Amino acid sequence: MPSLLASSLAPAAARTQPFVLLQSSTAQSCLAVLRYAIRETTSRAGGCTLLFSLLYPPSIFVEESQLGSDRLQILDWTSNVPGYVENGLEVQSEMLRKVQDAPQGPLTVVVDSVDTLLSDIGSLAKTEQLLSSLFSLVKSRRDSRLVLHIHAPSPLAPIITSTRFSSSLTHAIARPTALVSHLATAYLTPPPPLSPPEKFWRVFTPIAERHYESEKLVFGAEGEGSGGGAFLVEVLVRGADAGGRRRGVEKGLEGWSADAPCELSSLAALKPLFVRRVVEEVAPDPTQNLSFNLNLTDEQQRSRAQVPLPYAHEGNPPEKANMPPPAAILYDPDSADDLDDDDPDEDLDI
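== Elongator complex protein 5 ==
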């Protein structure tokens, strides 16, 4: 089964999915998915990718082989902290100018992260206005895309995931594997296809939205920490797919390992859930170790089958089976019985 997230992040899907939101949390980072998205966009022929690094250094997202690519422009603004740097950049105007001056052709704008952008601007309304302007510039170009990285919980999340901001959306949320293992153990609800999707999402969604639950599972006394490159990705795709077919909203849960999507069953932490142990319980034979034989030979079974049963007529009426007629009730009226055809109520004075 093809990966829903990989198909949505493919360059060919930018026409119908121009907005991608990648969501991290304290319990699980989504940087590997962002690195994959940048690698996919820079690998296609033609077009340009603008990477605005506001939180993490560009070396986390970009491989050394991509640094010299003319299709990738890196703007490292991690050191631009308003109030601490003299002659700092005006983030709003500078970001819009860079997008407007980008080379012609398909454009991918990556912003890491919008929470840092909100902190630098200092206003939720102005940050929303800037993101809307960026998205308008991106949509004005054919086969272009805006990729935002957000850290949940964030006040910007309900704004940029609404249909007012964009009717189409690819929303990828990183989840720790410990969350699904906990649901399978405590709530007896393993991930699909081990349980019905409706049942799983009804249990998974409210618990996953309580971020402290995931943090407790990862960093608690019995947690395993956030180490390792394998995790889960909750994918929500709203709008049309790469072929332009309308599909409403599609939701799925996928695995992520070694900077690439994978099946849930291939994750080491979830393999025990998918291993089916078939235990064949052979019941003891009650006829064994007896001093007499309870079994019948083939000849005895044939003779037994030929014995006519007194209550079995094989569907024939009693007349055809040489049996007496069916029983009947014969009643001899008593002298006190009134069996005439007169009115039974004639003795009543009405």
